[in-house]
Amino acid sequence: MDYRLQAELPAILNRLGLRVGEYDLVSLAGSAKGLLAPWWRPWERWTLLRQIRLAQKLHGITSVLVLAHDDCGAYGIADWDEENETQKLDLSRIRVYLRNKFLDLKIQTGIILGTATGNLHLE
To answer: What pTM was estimated for this model as a whole?
Structure first.
C-alpha cells in the first residue's frame, strides 16, 4: 500500500464503521489495476483471492472492500479525470468478478482521494 495512505487509513475505515481490530487488512500494490489485467501473473491473482478465502474461512468475513487511490503510480495517468474514470471502470469490473467468485460476500469498492495533498477522503 502507498505509504501516503497508511497513517490515515484507519480513520477513513472508521468513518465507514470499520474499527481497528475488527477487519483483516490485505494490501497488494497495484491490485486494483492488476486483478483483471492480462499482464498480472496468475500467482498474484491467486494470492489476493487466497487472502479473501482465508479471511472468510478463518474470520468469517461477510464483506470485502476494495480501495484504489488517486495519484496512483501503478496507473501512471497524469490527468486526474482520466485516472478517476479508469479506476471507476476497473472497480466496477472488480465488483462483478469478485461477486462471481464469492457469492456470499458483499463486495464494495471506493477510491481514496487527496493522496498527493494528504487531505484524504473516500469518494
So the answer is: 0.92
